[in-house]
């Protein structure tokens, strides 16, 4: 038996009973002959509570101290889990991200992993221990400050450790039974997927599917680490995410893998931009220099009479104020008319590798939205994805309509959400 990395989300370790249940599952893996490394998130809503507390103390908390605060949640989880495993008669050692050798850049609150040097983890395993690592955190390469990887960063921690330790598999335990064709909170007839390719999963994750973080899937694809998404509340087989189906499975790639939606984005429109070379470059250079990630971009056709155009793009709501401030500084230089900000939007995406060889998918997608009375504001496509922006209050109805239109509804039992968060 080889080495496995298991990651448990906040809903799996939300209370003492949950921690004891997780400890038993970990010990069972150890008894089956595996070396086990565990990555754990903060308990339940601990991270949200710490964020709220920081906001009460300071409207704009310093990045370094904010990271120091947020990493406390995972340290609590890892210590309690180690105690629970010890009670079951097995030895466990807990490690912070920095002790585990997770080295990052210096961008506080959303650092990226540069390297993983898991020497202490290997020593713990060689001594017969279970290693427990605090997810979501690391240490900056230059200043040696504690950093965090952004929300959902424990997934990335787990896959990065699996790659560094040459693990057989990275098991992501959550509060649903695997990856579904849509969010089971919105589509109760969503169907569980037995296997999905890295490419399709990356598109779903990037489009708002909450079960896996897109950075985690990127990392797994780069190092070819199979991910097994399972529920910590049941013994069901879950979903495999990999280049090829695992073991003896022969699973045909579906035409449509699923429907994802995202309500965490906002839209900015730069109105009246002079239609000449360099203006778009100036706008998006300013956005990039402020460390803001953008998603969809649409530029209108220039009005012949004025030589002006509008440029719209979507970005995380949390970055909206920073983006507006950055663009306002460009107004004298570019000479655009105004800025419009809209945070009442939602993105709906249809994902599937078979789309590119099956004509009619795009038409069917738009027809389903039309039949549901949903208006489209922006459109973006790739080889395996179609995304549109709609009004936020229409998104649930739109997702259900598209899911049904493409025959993704399950005829069996409704999907079960055990913990309520989807992670």
Helix-strand blueprint:
Elements: E1 3-8, H1 16-31, E2 35-40, H2 46-57, H3 63-70, H4 72-87, E3 92-95, E4 102-104, E5 113-116, H5 119-126, E6 130-134, E7 137-140, E8 146-148, H6 153-164, E9 169-174, E10 195-197, H7 198-206, H8 214-223, E11 227-231, E12 239-242, E13 258-262, E14 265-274, H9 279-289, E15 297-299, E16 308-316, H10 320-328, H11 331-334, E17 338-342, E18 345-351, H12 361-371, E19 378-382, E20 385-391, H13 395-405
Parallel strand pairs: 1-2, 1-9, 2-6, 3-6, 4-7, 9-11, 10-12
Antiparallel strand pairs: 4-5, 7-8, 11-12, 13-18, 14-16, 14-17, 15-16, 18-20, 19-20
Helix pairs in contact: 1-4, 6-8, 7-8, 12-13
General description of the model:
With 423 residues, the chain is of the alpha/beta class. The protein has a domain at 3-248: Acetylglutamate kinase-like (Carbamate kinase, 3-Layer(aba) Sandwich), CATH 3.40.1160. The chain is built from 13 helices and 20 strands. The strands form four sheets. It has an eight-stranded mixed β-sheet with strand order 3-6-2-1-9-11-12-10, sandwiched between helices. The protein has a four-stranded mixed β-sheet with strand order 5-4-7-8. It has a four-stranded antiparallel β-sheet with strand order 13-18-20-19, sandwiched between helices. Helix 1 crosses helix 4 (72-87). The longest helix has 16 residues, at 16-31. The two termini are 28 Å apart. The model has no long low-confidence stretch (mean pLDDT 92).
């Amino acid at each position: 038996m080889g080495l496995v990395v298991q990651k448990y989300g906040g809903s799996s370790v939300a209370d003492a009973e949950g921690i004891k249940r997780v400890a038993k599952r970990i010990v069972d893996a150890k008894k089956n002959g595996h070396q086990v490394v565990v990555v754990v998130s903060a308990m339940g809503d601990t991270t949200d509570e710490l964020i709220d507390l920081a906001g009460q103390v300071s409207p704009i908390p310093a990045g370094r101290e904010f990271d120091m605060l947020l990493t406390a949640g995972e340290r609590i989880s890892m210590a309690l889990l180690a105690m629970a495993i010890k009670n079951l008669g097995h030895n466990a050692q807990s490690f912070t991200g920095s002790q585990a050798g997770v080295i990052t850049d210096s961008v506080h609150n959303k650092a990226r992993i540069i390297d993983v040097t898991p020497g202490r983890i290997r020593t713990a395993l060689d001594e017969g221990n279970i290693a427990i690592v605090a997810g979501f955190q690391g240490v900056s390469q230059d200043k040696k400050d504690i950093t965090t990887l952004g929300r959902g960063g424990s997934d990335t921690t787990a896959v990065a450790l699996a790659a560094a330790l040459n693990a057989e598999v990275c098991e992501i335990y959550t509060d649903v039974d695997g990856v579904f064709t849509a969010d089971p909170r919105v589509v109760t007839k969503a169907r569980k997927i037995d296997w999905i390719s890295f490419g399709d999963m990356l598109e779903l994750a990037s489009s708002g599917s909450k079960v896996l973080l897109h950075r985690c899937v990127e990392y797994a694809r780069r190092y070819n680490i199979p991910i097994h998404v399972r529920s910590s509340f049941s013994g069901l087989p879950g979903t495999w995410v990999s280049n090829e189906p695992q073991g003896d499975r022969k699973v045909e790639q579906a035409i449509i893998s699923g429907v994802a939606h995202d309500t965490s984005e906002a839209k900015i429109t730069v109105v009246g931009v002079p239609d000449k070379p360099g203006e778009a470059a100036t706008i998006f250079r300013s956005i990039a220099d402020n460390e803001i990630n953008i998603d969809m971009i649409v530029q209108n056709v220039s009005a012949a009479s004025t030589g002006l155009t509008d440029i719209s793009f979507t970005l995380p709501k949390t970055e909206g104020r920073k983006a507006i401030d950055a663009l306002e500084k460009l107004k004298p230089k570019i000479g655009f008319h105004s800025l419009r900000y809209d945070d009442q939007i939602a993105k709906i995406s249809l994902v599937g590798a078979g789309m590119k060889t099956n004509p009619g998918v795009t038409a069917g997608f738009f027809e389903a939205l039309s039949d549901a009375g949903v208006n489209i504001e922006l459109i973006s496509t790739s080889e395996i994805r179609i995304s549109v922006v709609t009004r936020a209050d229409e998104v649930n109805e739109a997702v259900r309509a598209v899911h049904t239109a493409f025959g993704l509804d399950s005829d069996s039992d409704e999907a079960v959400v055990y913990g309520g968060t989807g992670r």
